[in-house]
User: Which sequence fits this backbone?
């Protein structure tokens, strides 16, 4: 029992620290964007949805446009933590990269690569694994949740250790800012621990790895159209690349309540308020104003407003996305160029790591 509360306290402290640091980082970007290298990524497990769009993608584009160097990892090795590698993976990677480009990630300014394609990055996992203990790995709450969610009786070795692999994703390029949601904070703590221990053990005079900082997004939490956690597998998320008809259908089936008057009350009326919030985000307006305007129009008016708002907001994104998927050559070029850039960084880092570890013969 005391163990649990201790962990809760750690998590709260880590969250409070990350929030304070994030505010200071934002101010620092404005002053000198060139001092920062952002590393972030996604698992290619299906198309990205509006939760990603408002939660992380717009933020990445904003940072890129501020002039902060940004590297995005397509975390394909993280898809095999709890399943076999599916034959759909190449297509899934294309879809993910198409989402990135369509929302405004510019491959001339942002490096996009898949970590399976960069052997030197993966090789960092061996020394990194030597720097953490089994109990430290076992304590990671996100891994625990994913183990339960996987439905498997026990975790695979990769599921148990992937936060160490994620440290390699971040440290291979000396990323110093990692935009994340709360669930990723334990992984970032592990990355910082690995950086610290590597320095203590192999580079005590002059730290080789910096300790990256979390940049917590202040984006509101969106629910799925059924009022549950938004998730690809629940079919309750509006994909960025969905058609207008698919969007309309999903919204038509969305859960509401029996109160005819539309209000914004996230605690008392989570489902209706979530739809209002989504419409407000798409329209760039305040949720309360949107609710007020719909008023006694009821859920059918709310759904009409929302469908139009989403489709209008994503129209140009979707048309660039279809063009990219139609002719995939641009997507291929982006991945190839990204692999080259990331590969050069990883090679250089691994060379230094080998030197520091006395493994050059
Ligand atoms: N674990 C992240 C997720 O599930 C994806 C990811 C992989 C990542 N490597 C990363 C995120 C490095 C930030 C930094 O969404």
Assistant:
């Amino acid at each position: 029992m005391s163990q649990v509360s201790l962990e809760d306290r750690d998590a709260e402290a880590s969250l409070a620290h990350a929030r304070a640091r994030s505010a200071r980082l934002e101010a620092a970007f404005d002053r000198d964007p060139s001092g920062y290298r952002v590393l972030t990524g996604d698992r290619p497990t299906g198309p990205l949805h509006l939760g990603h769009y408002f939660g992380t993608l717009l933020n990445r584009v904003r940072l890129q446009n501020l002039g902060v160097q940004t590297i995005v990892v397509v975390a394909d090795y993280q898809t095999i933590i709890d399943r076999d590698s599916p034959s759909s993976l190449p297509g899934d990677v294309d879809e993910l990269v198409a989402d990135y480009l369509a929302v405004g990630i510019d491959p001339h300014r942002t490096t996009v690569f898949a970590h399976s394609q960069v052997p030197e990055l993966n090789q960092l996992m061996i020394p990194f694994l030597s720097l953490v203990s089994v109990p430290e790995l076992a304590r990671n709450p996100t891994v625990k949740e994913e183990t339960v969610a996987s439905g498997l009786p026990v975790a695979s070795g990769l599921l148990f250790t992937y936060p160490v692999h994620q440290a390699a994703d971040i440290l291979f390029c000396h990323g110093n800012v990692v935009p994340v949601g709360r669930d990723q904070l334990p992984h970032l703590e592990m990355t910082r621990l690995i950086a610290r221990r590597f320095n203590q053990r192999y580079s005590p005079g002059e730290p080789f790895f910096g300790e990256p900082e979390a940049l917590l997004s202040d984006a509101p939490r969106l629910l799925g159209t059924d009022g549950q956690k938004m998730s690809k597998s629940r079919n309750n998320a509006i994909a960025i690349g969905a058609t207008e008809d698919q969007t309309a259908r999903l919204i038509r089936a969305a859960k509401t309540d029996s109160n005819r008057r539309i209000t914004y009350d996230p605690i008392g009326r989570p489902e209706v308020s979530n739809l209002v919030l989504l419409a407000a985000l798409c329209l760039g307006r305040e949720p309360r104003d949107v609710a007020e305007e719909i008023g006694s129009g009821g859920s059918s008016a709310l759904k009409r407003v929302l469908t139009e708002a989403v489709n209008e907001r994503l129209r140009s994104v979707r048309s660039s996305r279809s063009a990219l998927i139609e002719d995939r050559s641009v997507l291929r070029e982006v991945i190839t160029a990204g692999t080259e850039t990331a590969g050069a960084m990883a090679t250089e880092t691994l060379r230094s790591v080998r030197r520091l570890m006395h493994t050059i013969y």
Notes: The CA atoms of residues 2 and 68 lie 42 Å apart. The first strand starts at residue 37 and ends at 42.
